Amino acid sequence: MKDFRKSCVYQIYPKSFRDTTGNGVGDLNGVTEKLDYLKKLGVDYLWLTPFFVSPQNDNGYDIADYYHIDPLFGTMEDLDRLIKEAADRGMGLMFDMVFNHTSTQHEWFARALKGEKEYQDYYIFRKGKKGVPPTNWQSKFGGSAWEYVEELGQYYLHLFDRTQADLNWENPNVREEIRKVLLYWKKKGIRGFRFDVINLISKPAYFEDDDEGDGRRFYTDGPRVHEYLKEMVKETGLYEDDIITVGEMSSTTIHHCIQYTNPQEQQLKMCFNFHHLKVDYKNGDKWSLMPYDFMGLKKIFHTWQTGMAEGSGWNAVFWCNHDQPRAVSRFGDEARYRKQSAKMLATAIHGMRGTPYIYQGEELGMTNAGFTSADQYRDVESLHYFDILKESGMEEARIYEVLRQRSRDNSRTPMQWSDQEYAGFTNGVPWIEVNRNYKEINAEECLEDSDSIFYYYQKLVGLRKEYDVISEGGCEPVLEDHEAVFAYKRTYGGDTLLVLTNFTDRSQSIAAADLKLPDEELTKYRTLIANDGAERESKKIRLSPYGAIML
Ligand code: TEU
Description:
Blueprint: E1 9-12, H1 28-33, H2 35-41, E2 45-48, E3 52-53, E4 65-69, H3 76-88, E5 92-97, E6 101-103, H4 107-113, H5 117-120, E7 125-126, E8 146-149, E9 154-157, E10 164-166, H6 172-187, E11 192-195, H7 216-219, H8 225-236, E12 244-248, H9 254-261, E13 270-272, E14 281-282, E15 285-289, H10 294-310, E16 316-317, H11 327-330, H12 338-350, E17 355-359, H13 380-391, H14 396-406, H15 443-448, H16 453-466, H17 468-472, E18 474-478, E19 485-492, E20 495-502, E21 508-511, H18 519-524, E22 529-530, E23 534-536, E24 540-543, E25 548-550
Parallel strand pairs: 1-2, 1-17, 2-5, 5-11, 11-12, 12-13, 16-17
Antiparallel strand pairs: 3-4, 6-10, 7-9, 8-9, 14-15, 18-19, 19-20, 20-25, 21-24, 22-25, 23-24
This protein binds 1-O-alpha-D-glucopyranosyl-D-fructose.
The site of 1-O-alpha-D-glucopyranosyl-D-fructose (TEU) has 13 residues, from loops.
């Protein structure tokens, strides 16, 4: 049985992982083909983003049938084989369950549109106010969160795309349907579940305009969310020891995350929050660029690390996923110090208290897409914002710059397996362009180089299994006011772990005294892992550009 505190989860975006049919879209057999690679990395769970039947308006986060696999990705036999082959290698699958909304192509929604009251109550339909939507809430992808249905004379709520209709969790039948889906997949042997935007499922009893914002304060960590989660978990037996669950929490608070994950509550094992990934949003706006605020980033990490520990909550810790730009391009240096900074960023996360997640390609140091023209983008959000920013009067060149830094497609370019055509991802034409740097950055190259980012990650994953101080220890900020180095200390039993990471391209020197240690104490620490940028002297540690060390 796996202990989620010692585990590492690897996220796969199947569409961009490995295509075995030549249609340009990755598939389940592609994942099976690469299991030995994943095993070598040492990860415990494979989180696969949704591959259920879907019109793919939001790459599968618009589910039309929770029980069937979209033929685009393969068949049930392919899945069965994947489950078995992964289990044979000691890895469990984690499914991505999207229960805040369904595709408008789901049968429930179709029946609602046909006038069946029972199914209308599966969604959130409301009358407008004299030709105006029921509230002024905004969709997360831009524009109103309400869509008018002529035939019914009503609007339905969609917090995301208008083809993603929000489900009505107040309706016990909806909750029952959701439990059925979970039990079905659990019985098939799925060992983990990720719940998409699960803290948005509970909407307020009354819908009113938001004079201060886009409406999120009314439904984020909403009134009945904890009750719903407890019920769902209890009725499906999801709190069992060997099942891992993670909730994706949008704009949440530590207070709520403790409640979601404290074992006494029996809700989820851990949750994602995104506060550390908004430190480069000017005034909190994703589409306004600014250099990232390093001191702000440190503060968020320290606050969440210590706050969750104090409340016995548990974090999922990560830099990258399919919605975020590549970390090395964002917080590191994607050119001269790419390898060094990728390893530094990995060290910062993998020493933390929590369960680390690696997103496909992160272990190779893959970078942002570098797209230069609108027709290279595929993401529904990027395409919406292209228009929205244009209408707002932004110059086209600036829009391209914003998308180059912020588009979700930055992380969705095909996995770079080799220096062959299309990076060895497909024999056909990929659904989204391959990053041009695939000849230098690819898995084959990484596997041949013992000093590669891949092997550095492999070592980090192993250290968590070996040392209880990494998996169990408490945490304390170190060098809080330092303007270049992010550092922390973990303690467990008689052991202390120190993690020091230099986020700049300037060398830094940290003396024992800076760490509040007597000189002779520092010499007692053993180096567990370091990139090429860290050097130890008797009384100090030198960190060259993007240097990192774990002691
Ligand atoms: O994302 C939820 C979410 O709030 C984001 O991270 C979102 O991508 C961001 O707000 C856009 O600026 C989840 C999925 O991870 C994402 O891929 C889906 O598009 C979304 O839910 C809807 O299901």
